[in-house]
Design a protein that fits this description.
289 residues, mainly alpha, disordered C terminus
Length: 289
């Protein structure tokens, strides 16, 4: 064996050992985070109050919009969601809460796969499961919405302002995708208007009251108008530079109120960033050819 070959073999062996050490460290970190996440999940199952979910379960069909943002049991989503949530009342609350928890956990697994339990160490995700909100479902809608634009209807009909993500399709001139996303929301809205027309006026009023209400305990105490402009600029930049992962960042920024649970939407960055890296790996060989 020549001197050069011996040096190459030693270098290769050192590199292999280094990679093996990194894998062991990564596995240890994953195990520790997963154990912590499992403990949190068990705590949520046993003690989680599901206070946000209670507003969906206990929606008052006689007057669903009697309360505003920040009030206990306030229902703030569109009449489409109110009608969809109405059947939940026939299920005992605890059973319904655990079913919704399973949906949220399923969303988390879809987004981060084997890191789902470890992701619970990110406090907004743990709080999301604890309170039972819809942010993880919105996160899935963002990821899926690039392939199936109609999935954006959920964000539009719940928190409304996350619809800022549709700027992506406008900037890229993907008119069909934009039409599908908006069209699904409009179609569902028309059906609900035919069923309960009075609810739409009441919902618009509660949105107006909520917009002007003082928001306490939020992470970002900036008027929604400024945040919407910043979010639209972010999405436009992402669309021009082909950075899908920026969309959940913009959607989080554009939330009606950035409560402590809202950054759970940022979990959608993981699959979108991973997808971008995969695309880069696929493109690189052809670029060199």
């Amino acid at each position: 064996m020549t001197a050069r070959a011996r040096v190459s073999a030693v270098a290769h062996g050192t590199l292999t050992t280094h990679h093996a050490s990194l894998r062991r460290v990564a596995l240890l970190v994953w195990a520790l985070l997963t154990a912590a996440g499992l403990a949190e999940l068990l705590a949520v199952i046993v003690w989680g109050p599901g206070a946000d979910f209670h507003a969906y379960w206990d929606v008052n069909l006689g007057n669903p919009y009697g309360q505003s943002l920040g009030q206990t049991n306030a229902f703030l989503y569109s009449p489409v969601v109110a009608l969809a949530a109405a059947p939940l009342r026939i299920i005992p609350f605890e059973a319904a809460r655990l079913a919704w928890l399973a949906v949220n956990v399923g969303c988390l697994v879809y987004l981060v796969r084997r890191w789902a339990l470890a992701a619970l160490v990110f406090l907004p995700v743990a709080l999301e499961l604890y309170w039972g909100n819809v942010d993880l479902v919105i996160a899935v809608g963002i990821v899926v919405g690039f392939r199936y634009p109609a999935a954006w209807a959920f964000a539009l009909l719940t928190k409304v302002t996350p619809g800022v993500g549709l700027v992506w399709f406008l900037v890229r001139r993907e008119w069909r995708s934009f039409a599908l996303a908006l069209g699904m929301a409009v179609a569902l809205s028309v059906v609900s208007f035919l069923v309960v027309p009075a609810w739409w006026g009441a919902w618009l009023q509660v949105l107006s009251r909520s917009t002007s209400a003082t928001q306490t305990a939020t992470l970002l105490d900036v008027p929604i108008g400024f945040r919407m402009v910043a979010a639209m600029l972010l999405v436009a930049w992402g669309a021009v530079t082909d950075r899908r992962w920026i969309v959940p960042v913009a959607v989080t920024l554009a939330a009606p109120a950035v409560w402590r649970i809202v950054p759970a939407i940022l979990v959608a960055v993981v699959p979108l960033w991973r997808g971008r890296r995969s695309d880069s790996v696929k493109i690189a060989p052809s670029a060199q050819a």
